[in-house]
């Protein structure tokens, strides 16, 4: 049955000849639609396009592989339906070379095909991450040493101001950050120069015109709006019945300040506004007492006024704490060190590029910039496409970009240069969702998407936008919950897009009605992390606390909650494999979660991106390599001795050291091995033998290490020590084995670098660990099946799960980057503190503060989008969890949102979020699910302005430590009762008659066709012979005599040639008889000539030819049977080496087999001939038989020949009149009666 596309999806598939931006919401089927668009272009009846004329760029290699696989499968299916379609046949062959790749893969394609345009050696390779880290450090060291040697004034100023302590690590970090940021721009040098312009402002007029000064006024405007709302709300409470009316005088004074401030901001009077805020004295609140005034309302007014004062103070401290003249002066103080930073960064850029060219390696930024260099020429501000760009622009019918929201400026320019500009075509197809742009740390620029989102028309046009809103993944309850939250917390000011009707999620999937008729509600679990119970436990972390709550909830879900089975389309009980726990980061979270869940008997799998170098098996082998390089290292040597390789326990190590305390540990081992031991001390003898073996093996490995590649050395160590087999045999063996295999692969990659040898490999690994390069443990395919999966939100993007725990909502956002001394913004440049060494002063510049504000907003916007990705992974049930402290205070703070009428929460609330609860709880404050919690904490009921745009079902639950402890006790009690029940179980007693009958019936079941388990599908005639008479095996063996045991001497030593015996000799005779020409076999010479012809044509080897006795062949040819066969050959009635397969009833093969099943019998008949329209059957034997042993051959082979005869009669419909065995040993034909 074909797919039914929505109207919007059909537009995406069918529209042509335009630039298209598809804004595809989560679960909207964008990949399926993109694939269908590609297929529709291929199969277009009017304008069919070859698949290799489409450029399709995805974000990851996995996505590219999946898309190519889908397209290939679809083409194969269409070709199956239309096998004669030549166009489809062509696409099936072109798909393997189609440009379905990542942007990096496409850049590599450009470089491979046009490397000559930039004088690049085509033999380059892509550098490995660890190698680049080491190279960066080497180059940085050289660049800094050269800069110190030059003693440039600007550089020395940079060092004096920003090198902290006794090291220049801060300078190095600044250079790295600036270099990395610049490389995401098409023209790094120009961008750095533009950043310097901030510090080259010379007048107040120029200062006023800077973009960042405009942002200061935006901050002031925003604060004024918030202050106005706070003060007016406080004044309204004062005027309420039982309100603190006597506070109004102070509030009037505050409002007067507000009016004055509004005027100053409107006039953009920086110095005046600064003076106003710094010099203002706030009026004191009245101390009048009136029993009719509600104390809680007094507190509310005080809190609101304090919040307003806090906003003024923050504005003053950050942006209006100095004069314009001072701002200008501070910028000029920073100019010289910043110019020094720019100079040394550009020097590092050039030196790093030169070193990579020397070693002929590239990194991913090189690929993008080299591709850009190939595609265009730049002179001044003029960009001219190159001949390569013309060629590629004309080649591609359409350029498709998936996950467009994660593109950067370089990628955008490359895309435009290969699009259809050459022949004035609009042919760029972009698909993405700005709400899922979560790769800001990779310098993605979602504003590229948003610029087109606002510019492109929804109407039919050359630049058209199509919105896909329908979600075909999740239940309506999940979508309404997501919509309810994000309508209130995501706006263009924070998140990049206003979450209104046009961006909300709409149900596209259809779920059958559940048995209980209810839709699963979204759960919110608030786990208190403060309380007396926790203080008593003391050592439990917030991660363990939350994991415990989740574990208890999982135990209540599995086997109870129903989920829709994807394959059957019916409901089934939820299993562990239906559940995922999503975390913002795995570091510090995944491991405690795994441990807690595992301790509760819950199978769990974590796909870790860290922890590789901490894996015990990797540590052990690396330690072994270290002591192979240099055994005089006590810590690695102790680790290896205490591992399965050394096999020593701590007591044995203590014995060695106490007996031989002098020198390093390795010297102690040598001394212990060589010391004289009392033969009666059996334990010490065993230990000495163990140490001797260890030292001997280590010596062997050290000798190997001199000339053996590292990866081969590791493999040899694993085999020789048995450690590879050991780790695969212990729990988690598959994972451990995969980790060691990765170590071998990394060693192979290392061998391809410019570094060589074991010593350098050990240093290489140590530096990787120093610079925190972690490969992450190997992710095994299907490792998470049947287990609760724990993964990061980033890793979950593009995936879906029936039940999702969005965990860690209480984890504080990481603002470490924006609190550093050196900040970089792609549009506002880099910001630093002004440092006055002679005055020993460090002062924050307004420029840096405004950059910090902007970075914080963008960071919070990214966190919002990350939250959106997490919540939209759920198909059926969403559970939001997190720990929270001081719940009463938090609820009091968010309760002010209850009466708010505007849907979008104020930027002051959203812009100061510290964790995900700071977004979620203010949004939930207007949902009735929060009322019980508000009432529990005595927060006065207010009229809730419910967000009516969504009918979302939430269940908000507070979980205390006491409840968790109680749950633990109940769980342990239940386990103890179950254990006791099982131990006291009376197997003779029937507890449930119905279950007993079922079990009895099942265990008593016998497979009715069990006798067929030994029945083969096909048997050979030789096997039938063995079945026919069990005693024949001994008889067969009796025909051969066991020779005396002789000394085995290889033929190349003895000089003797190996004699062909037994089956090999029989093969040689059968080959000659198969090819024998009876008309030229009358004497020795003729037969020798035939054998020579067989060897020359390689139908027989010389060794086989030598084992044939010519006299045997002549005897056969001269025999009566031989002459009859010669006559038959002359009449073309002789058939040799004839294979056959016939069907036979099973009971004819084995009397014990009762049934009508058929077995295939196969064999090869040596020879038969037709004589008087009847068959004569002949079988050659070379068995060693004593004279008079004819009956032995008959007894041994008669069944086989009877089967041959039966087969011939069935196949040829002729009678077998005679059957003969011809024995070459006896030179005699033996008839079978």
UniProtKB/TrEMBL annotation:
<dbReference type="GO" id="GO:0003690">
    <property type="term" value="F:double-stranded DNA binding"/>
</dbReference>
<comment type="subunit">
    <text>Heterodimer of AddA and AddB/RexB.</text>
</comment>
<dbReference type="InterPro" id="IPR027417">
    <property type="entry name" value="P-loop_NTPase"/>
</dbReference>
<keyword id="KW-0540">Nuclease</keyword>
<dbReference type="Pfam" id="PF13361">
    <property type="entry name" value="UvrD_C"/>
</dbReference>
<dbReference type="InterPro" id="IPR014017">
    <property type="entry name" value="DNA_helicase_UvrD-like_C"/>
</dbReference>
<dbReference type="InterPro" id="IPR000212">
    <property type="entry name" value="DNA_helicase_UvrD/REP"/>
</dbReference>
<keyword id="KW-0413">Isomerase</keyword>
<comment type="similarity">
    <text>Belongs to the helicase family. AddA subfamily.</text>
</comment>
<dbReference type="GO" id="GO:0005524">
    <property type="term" value="F:ATP binding"/>
</dbReference>
<keyword id="KW-0227">DNA damage</keyword>
<dbReference type="InterPro" id="IPR014016">
    <property type="entry name" value="UvrD-like_ATP-bd"/>
</dbReference>
<dbReference type="GO" id="GO:0043138">
    <property type="term" value="F:3'-5' DNA helicase activity"/>
</dbReference>
<keyword id="KW-0547">Nucleotide-binding</keyword>
<keyword id="KW-0234">DNA repair</keyword>
<feature type="binding site">
    <location>
        <begin position="24"/>
        <end position="31"/>
    </location>
    <ligand>
        <name>ATP</name>
    </ligand>
</feature>
<dbReference type="InterPro" id="IPR038726">
    <property type="entry name" value="PDDEXK_AddAB-type"/>
</dbReference>
<dbReference type="GO" id="GO:0005829">
    <property type="term" value="C:cytosol"/>
</dbReference>
<feature type="domain" description="UvrD-like helicase C-terminal">
    <location>
        <begin position="502"/>
        <end position="798"/>
    </location>
</feature>
<dbReference type="Pfam" id="PF00580">
    <property type="entry name" value="UvrD-helicase"/>
</dbReference>
<dbReference type="InterPro" id="IPR014152">
    <property type="entry name" value="AddA"/>
</dbReference>
<comment type="function">
    <text>The heterodimer acts as both an ATP-dependent DNA helicase and an ATP-dependent, dual-direction single-stranded exonuclease. Recognizes the chi site generating a DNA molecule suitable for the initiation of homologous recombination. The AddA nuclease domain is required for chi fragment generation; this subunit has the helicase and 3' -&gt; 5' nuclease activities.</text>
</comment>
<keyword id="KW-0347">Helicase</keyword>
<keyword id="KW-0378">Hydrolase</keyword>
<dbReference type="InterPro" id="IPR011335">
    <property type="entry name" value="Restrct_endonuc-II-like"/>
</dbReference>
<dbReference type="Pfam" id="PF12705">
    <property type="entry name" value="PDDEXK_1"/>
</dbReference>
<feature type="domain" description="UvrD-like helicase ATP-binding">
    <location>
        <begin position="3"/>
        <end position="475"/>
    </location>
</feature>
<dbReference type="GO" id="GO:0033202">
    <property type="term" value="C:DNA helicase complex"/>
</dbReference>
<dbReference type="GO" id="GO:0008408">
    <property type="term" value="F:3'-5' exonuclease activity"/>
</dbReference>
<dbReference type="GO" id="GO:0000724">
    <property type="term" value="P:double-strand break repair via homologous recombination"/>
</dbReference>
<dbReference type="GO" id="GO:0016887">
    <property type="term" value="F:ATP hydrolysis activity"/>
</dbReference>
<keyword id="KW-0269">Exonuclease</keyword>
<dbReference type="InterPro" id="IPR011604">
    <property type="entry name" value="PDDEXK-like_dom_sf"/>
</dbReference>
<protein>
    <recommendedName>
        <fullName>ATP-dependent helicase/nuclease subunit A</fullName>
        <ecNumber>3.1.-.-</ecNumber>
        <ecNumber>5.6.2.4</ecNumber>
    </recommendedName>
</protein>
<keyword id="KW-0238">DNA-binding</keyword>
<keyword id="KW-0067">ATP-binding</keyword>
């Amino acid at each position: 049955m074909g797919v039914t596309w929505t109207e919007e999806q059909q537009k995406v598939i069918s529209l042509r000849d335009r630039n298209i931006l598809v804004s595809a919401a989560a679960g909207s089927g964008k990949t399926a639609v993109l694939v269908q668009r590609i297929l529709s272009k291929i199969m277009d009846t009017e304008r069919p396009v070859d698949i290799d004329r489409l450029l399709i760029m995805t974000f990851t290699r996995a996505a590219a592989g999946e898309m190519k696989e889908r397209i290939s499968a679809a083409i194969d299916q269409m070709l199956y339906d239309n096998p004669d379609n030549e166009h489809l046949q062509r696409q099936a062959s072109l798909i393997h070379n189609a440009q379905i790749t990542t942007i990096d893969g496409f850049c590599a394609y450009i470089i491979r095909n046009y490397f000559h345009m930039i004088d690049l050696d085509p033999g380059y390779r892509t550098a490995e991450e660890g190698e680049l880290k080491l190279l960066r450090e080497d180059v940085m060291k050289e660049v800094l040493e050269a800069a110190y040697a030059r003693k440039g004034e600007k550089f020395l100023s940079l060092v004096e101001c920003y090198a902290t302590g006794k090291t220049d690590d801060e300078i190095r970090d600044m250079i790295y950050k600036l270099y990395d940021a610049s490389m995401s721009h098409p023209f790094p040098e120009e961008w750095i120069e533009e950043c310097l312009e901030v510090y080259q402002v010379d007048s107040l007029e120029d200062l006023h015109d800077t973009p960042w000064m405009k942002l200061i006024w935006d901050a002031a405007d925003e604060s004024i709006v918030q202050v106005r709302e706070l003060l007016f709300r406080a004044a309204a409470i004062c005027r309420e019945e039982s309100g603190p009316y006597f506070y109004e005088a102070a509030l009037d004074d505050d409002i007067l300040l507000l009016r004055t401030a509004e005027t100053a901001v409107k006039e953009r009077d920086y110095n005046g506004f600064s003076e106003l805020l710094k010099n203002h004295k706030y009026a004191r609140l009245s101390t009048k007492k009136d029993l009719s005034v509600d104390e809680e309302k007094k507190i509310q007014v005080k809190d609101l006024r304090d919040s307003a004062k806090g906003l003024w103070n923050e504005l003053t401290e950050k942006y209006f704490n100095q004069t314009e003249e001072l701002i200008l002066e501070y910028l000029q103080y920073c100019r010289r060190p910043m110019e020094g930073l720019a100079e040394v960064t550009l020097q590092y850029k050039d030196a790093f590029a030169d070193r990579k060219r020397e070693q002929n390696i590239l990194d991913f930024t090189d690929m993008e910039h080299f591709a850009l260099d190939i595609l265009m020429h730049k002179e001044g501000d003029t960009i001219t496409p190159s001949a390569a760009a013309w060629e590629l622009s004309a080649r591609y019918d359409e350029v498709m970009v998936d996950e467009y929201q994660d593109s950067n400026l370089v990628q955008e320019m490359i895309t435009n240069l290969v699009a259809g500009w050459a022949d004035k075509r609009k042919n760029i197809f972009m698909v993405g969702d700005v709400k899922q742009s979560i790769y800001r740390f990779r310098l993605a620029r979602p504003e590229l998407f948003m610029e087109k989102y606002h510019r492109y028309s929804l109407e039919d046009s050359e630049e058209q936008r199509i919105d896909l809103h329908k979600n075909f993944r999740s239940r309506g309850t999940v979508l309404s919950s997501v919509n309810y939250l994000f309508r209130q917390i995501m706006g263009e000011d924070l998140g990049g897009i206003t979450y209104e009707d046009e961006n909300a999620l709409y149900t596209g999937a259809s779920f059958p009605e559940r048995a209980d008729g209810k839709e699963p509600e979204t759960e919110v679990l608030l786990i208190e992390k403060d309380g007396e119970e926790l203080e008593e436990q003391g050592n439990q972390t917030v991660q363990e606390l939350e994991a415990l709550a989740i574990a208890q909830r999982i135990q209540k879900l599995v086997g109870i909650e129903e989920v829709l089975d994807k394959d059957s389309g019916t409901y089934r009980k939820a299993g562990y494999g239906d559940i995922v726990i999503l975390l913002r980061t795995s570091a510090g979270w995944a491991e405690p979660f795994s441990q807690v869940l595992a301790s509760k008997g819950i199978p769990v799998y974590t796909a870790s991106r860290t922890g590789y170098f901490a894996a015990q098996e990797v540590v052990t082998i690396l330690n072994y390599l270290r002591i192979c390089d240099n055994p005089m290292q006590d810590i690695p040597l102790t680790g290896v001795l205490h591992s399965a390789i050394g096999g020593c326990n701590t007591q044995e190590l203590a014995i060695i050291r106490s007996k031989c305390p002098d020198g390093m540990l390795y010297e102690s081992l040598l001394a212990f091995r060589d010391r004289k031991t009392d033969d009666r001390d059996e334990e010490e003898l065993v230990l000495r033998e163990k140490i001797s073996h260890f030292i001997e093996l280590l010596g062997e490995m050290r000798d190997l290490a001199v000339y053996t590649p590292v990866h081969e050395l590791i493999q040899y160590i694993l085999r020789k020590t048995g450690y590879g087999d050991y780790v695969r045999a212990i729990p988690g063996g598959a994972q451990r084995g995969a980790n060691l295999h990765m170590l071998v692969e990394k060693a192979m990659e290392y061998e391809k670098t410019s570094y060589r040898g074991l010593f350098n490999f050990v240093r290489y690994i140590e530096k990787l660990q120093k610079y925190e390069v972690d490969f992450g443990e190997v992710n095994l395919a299907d490792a998470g099946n049947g287990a609760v999966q724990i993964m990061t939100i980033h890793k979950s993007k593009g995936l879906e799960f029936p039940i999702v725990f969005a965990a860690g909502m209480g984890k504080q956002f990481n603002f470490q980057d924006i609190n550093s001394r050196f900040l970089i913004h792609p549009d506002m440049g880099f910001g630093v503190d002004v440092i006055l060494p002679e005055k020993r002063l460090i002062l924050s510049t307004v420029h840096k503060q405004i950059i910090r504000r902007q970075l914080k907003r963008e960071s919070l916007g990214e966190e919002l989008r990350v939250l959106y990705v997490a919540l939209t992974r759920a198909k059926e049930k969403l559970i939001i969890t997190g720990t929270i402290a001081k719940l009463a205070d938090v609820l009091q703070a968010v309760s002010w949102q209850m009466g708010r009428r505007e849907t979008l929460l104020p930027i002051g609330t959203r812009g100061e979020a510290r964790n995900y609860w700071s977004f979620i709880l203010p949004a939930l404050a207007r949902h009735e699910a929060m009322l019980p919690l508000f009432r529990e904490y005595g927060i006065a009921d207010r009229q809730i302005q419910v967000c009516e745009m969504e009918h979302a079902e939430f269940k908000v639950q507070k979980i205390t430590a006491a409840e968790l402890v109680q749950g633990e006790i109940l769980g342990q009690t239940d386990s103890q009762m179950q254990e006791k029940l099982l131990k006291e179980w009376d197997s003779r007693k029937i507890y449930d008659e119905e279950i007993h009958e079922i079990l009895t019936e099942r265990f008593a079941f016998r497979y009715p066709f069990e006798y067929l388990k030994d029945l083969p599908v096909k048997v050979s005639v030789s096997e039938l012979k063995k079945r026919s008479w069990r005693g024949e095996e001994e008889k067969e063996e009796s025909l051969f005599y066991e020779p005396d045991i002789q000394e085995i001497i290889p033929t190349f030593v003895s000089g003797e040639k190996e004699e062909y015996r037994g089956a090999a000799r029989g093969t040689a005779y059968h080959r000659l008889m198969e090819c024998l020409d009876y008309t030229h076999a009358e004497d020795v010479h003729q037969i020798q000539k035939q054998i020579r012809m067989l060897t020359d044509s390689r139908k027989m080897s010389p060794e086989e030819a030598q084992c044939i006795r010519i006299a045997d062949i002549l005897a056969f040819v001269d025999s009566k049977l031989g002459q009859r066969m010669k006559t038959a050959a002359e009449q073309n009635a002789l058939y040799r080496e004839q294979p056959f397969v016939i069907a036979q009833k099973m009971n004819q093969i084995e009397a014990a087999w009762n049934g009508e099943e058929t077995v295939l019998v196969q064999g090869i008949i040596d020879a038969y001939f037709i004589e008087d329209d009847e068959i004569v059957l002949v079988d050659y034997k070379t068995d060693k038989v004593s004279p008079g042993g004819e009956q032995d051959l008959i007894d041994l082979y008669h069944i086989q020949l009877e089967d041959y005869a039966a087969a011939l009669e069935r196949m040829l419909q002729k009678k077998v009149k005679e059957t003969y065995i011809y024995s070459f040993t006896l030179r005699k034909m033996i008839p079978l009666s």
